[in-house]
Amino acid sequence: MNRLEFMKALAAAAATAVVPRFAHGEHQAIPHTYTYKIAGGCEIKADVFGADMSVRKPVIVYIHGGALIEGSRKAPPGWLDPDGKYVVVSIDYRLAPETKLPAIIQDIEDAFRWVREQGPRLFNIDSEKLGVAGGSAGAYLTLMSGFCVTPRPRALLSLSGFGDISSSWQTQPSPFYLKQPLMSKEVAYASVTTACVSDPPEENERQRFFIYCRQKGIWPKEISGHDPEAEPKWFDAYCPVQNVSAKYPPCVLIHGTADTDVPYAQSVKMDQALSRFKVEHKLLSVPGGPHVLRGFDPAAKAVVLGQAVGFLKKHMT
User: How far apart are CA 262 and CA 274, in angstroms?
Assistant: First the structure.
């Protein structure tokens, strides 16, 4: 679909769509915070929005992005559930490079276990009606949940996600990040620690480490502790695109064609894998759209996100 066709489709959708409240911003409600796990000296927390002990609601688990290196559960996007008909559980997890990928995935598995086992009692959810959403690295973890979480979620929403972490887009220096001032190793490693981190302070400079990794093409090695060139098979278990099966949950993929961080081709590859196994899914390509649609036309963004959330909720309930 070219940009003209995309804009015509948006106009048609917008004619009947209701743009939700908080469509472009962060979640406006005050959450209830829980510690779902303690590991490695970290209290790993979840923020719960929209719980009502008088009404049992379906639940959306939101997983934040940040290259597995930065970010936190705080302020999930308001477009996930503008009308308050769902409970939104936004989770933290231990961050790399202090914690490596296998333990991060263990946190994700434990978070879902906690939501299913404790959620009905603590915040009155229908744990059988569970969907997952995330952006960027959070979308990667969302796609991971489609096969590593048991029981599997009902549906997934991936915004600017990726299903392959060991191919050249990550193992070679990024042309986009090489256009930025080069980050020295000393400055990069000074922004991370040796202690467990799951909720870094807002003023933390962990992005310096991420930029250094992308400029050097060492992100997979730093977040996993393994070298994709020397141990390519090790990464198979952590690449969603290689773990799609007929049992994979319905999935909606949103990706801008002008994404300079995560290549649009990553969602195309997931689309092809899902098609191969006849998994119900939808690829919403956004011509000219940037990474996680940041700064994109607000009205167009609202329509695309509304379509994606509609897909997610349809398959949850």
Answer: 19
Average pLDDT, the chain: 92
Residue 59 belongs to a domain: yes
- Domain residues for the domain of 142 are 3-167+236-316
Percentage of the chain exceeding pLDDT 90? 87
Structure confidence by residue, pLDDT tens digits, 39-98: 988 999 999 999 999 999 999 999 999 999 999 999 899 999 999 999 999 999 999 999
Q: How many domains does the chain have?
A: 1
In a domain, 53, yes or no: yes
Question: 24 lies in a domain?
Answer: yes
Q: What pLDDT, on the 0 to 100 scale, is given for residue 3? A: 56
CA distance 187 to 179: 18
For position 257, which CATH number holds?
3.40.50.1820
C-beta of residue 240 within 8 angstroms of C-beta of residue 163: yes
185, part of any domain: no
Q: In what order do the strands lie in the sheet with 42-49?
A: 32-39, 42-49, 87-91, 57-63, 125-135, 155-159, 251-256, 281-286
Average pLDDT over every residue of 235-248: 98
